UniProtKB/TrEMBL annotation:
Keywords: Membrane, Transmembrane, Transmembrane helix. This is Uncharacterized protein. The keyword Membrane applies. The chain crosses the membrane at residues 7-28, 34-60, 250-269, 281-301, 313-336.
């Protein structure tokens, strides 16, 4: 859980820090071309990004097994030594049992039981419950799983393996398929061949509720069966094979993050009203997101873990494509504007300030002028604190330079207060 949260924080930290770090210098170098609040907004994005990255370091540096060190000495929960691997032997089979206590706190982890039998394999295999998501991704062609021909096994278990040929050779043994099913019926969620061990993993294991005297011995027997008479070689040479899908995955992540950075244009070329900009970005977002999903699925498809890479990319892509679509529409609307800029001098009829809550309070200043667009009575603009102090409603004026916009969304080139 900590690793997943750390990756989540890393992705969003990079996006926010990049957008804030790129946008803040542009606004400071060209303050007249953006709203006064833009600098604050970019600075806030950069701070949020830094916080996310700091959280990433904290989460990814957590101990791999939760709860270790929670008990002093060799205390036991039931018959299990807490947080410490314990070597055992049964019927000549050497195995290791490790019970991990639940970890409380901000990133809690449930208790878990791990039983391990040493065995060397040329590649890895991972057996887990076949979820609805696994089935859907197989049916649409994103994921491709090795099938054994055993209906009961293929329906209940999803097999992840970098080498399809090795998985086929392994699954050809009916006893091994039966052993995996038996381990799952005992209560283990995941069964793995890691390259050095055969491991059964039971998250949420409670010694008082789930244990019985023959549990670990029966588990060791089944794992020993998985480790017996294994295929000696990997015909696909998975560890040495170049993984082109990993390259595509990195490229797709970079594209999504860089697309999100185009949000800078929405601050450099702000529209007079936000809603028309958002509504104009919706078709681009829908079409672009669907196209991105199809292309990424096509490039990543063909392996048993393709959907494991595709899913987080699409979840993060919702945010990235939303931000990027708004920025792209704002850039096209302003940079391709065919009409001349229009200067407007409008009387300031009101002013107000708003202070944010929290420890680091910031104040945003607004002035109100009569609207010139149909459907609006007044329009509100942000101004700097110095300009706000010099404003006298009814006497001061706001000078605006605007463009009609390529997409018909009026945008703001610059503004200034005339006291």
């Amino acid at each position: 859980m900590s690793r997943a949260a750390g990756i989540f924080c890393l992705v969003f930290g990079i996006v926010f820090l990049f957008v804030g770090g790129m946008g803040l210098p542009l606004v400071l170098m060209n303050p007249g071309g953006a709203a006064p609040g833009a600098a604050t907004a970019f600075a806030a994005l950069a701070v949020v990004g830094a916080v996310f990255l700091a959280a990433t370091l904290f989460l990814l540096r957590q101990p791999k097994h939760g709860g270790q060190g929670a008990l002093a000495g060799e205390e036991r929960v039931g018959r299990y030594l807490a947080n410490k691997p314990e070597p055992c032997e049964w019927n000549g089979v050497r195995y290791e049992v490790q019970y991990l206590l639940p970890k409380p706190g901000k990133n809690p982890k449930p208790s878990s039981l791990h039983v391990r039998v040493p065995v060397a394999t040329p590649t890895t295999l991972h057996f887990s419950r076949e979820s609805v998501f696994d089935r859907v991704c197989k049916s649409v062609g994103i994921a491709r799983e090795c099938q054994s021909g055993d209906r009961e096994f293929d329906t209940a278990v999803y097999v992840r393996c970098p080498s399809e040929a090795y998985a086929e050779a392994f699954l050809a043994d009916a006893d091994k398929r039966a052993a995996v099913l038996a381990l799952r019926k005992l209560g283990y969620r995941d069964v793995q061949l890691t390259g050095t061990q055969a491991v059964a993993h039971w998250p949420g294991f409670d010694p008082n509720a789930h244990d019985h005297p023959e549990l670990t011995a029966a588990t060791a027997d089944l794992l020993a069966l998985l480790a017996k008479d294994l295929p000696a070689d990997d015909p696909d040479h998975a560890p040495a094979r170049f993984d082109v899908r990993r390259v595509w995955s990195v490229g797709l992540w970079l594209f999504a993050l860089l697309y999100a950075v185009t949000l800078i244009a929405a601050f450099n070329y702000p529209t007079i009203h936000t809603w028309p900009l958002v509504m104009s970005a919706v078709p681009l977002f829908v079409g672009g997101y669907v196209a991105f999903g199809w292309v990424s699925a096509y490039l990543l498809s063909g392996t048993s873990t393709a959907h494991d890479r595709w899913y987080p990319l699409m979840v993060t892509g919702l945010l990235c494509h939303g931000l990027g679509s708004i920025g792209t529409v704002a850039a096209v609307n302003a940079l391709a504007d065919p009409g001349p800029l229009v200067e407007r001098v409008l009387p300031i009829v009101d002013k107000r300030s708003q202070t944010s809550s929290g420890k680091n309070r910031t104040t945003t200043y607004y002035v109100t002028v009569p609207a010139w667009e149909p459907g609006y009575d007044t329009t509100e603009f942000t101004v700097s604190g110095g300009d706000y102090a010099s404003v006298t409603p009814g006497r001061s004026k706001l000078q605006l330079v605007t463009g009609t916009g390529r997409l018909g969304i009026e945008w703001l080139m610059s503004k200034g207060v005339q006291p």
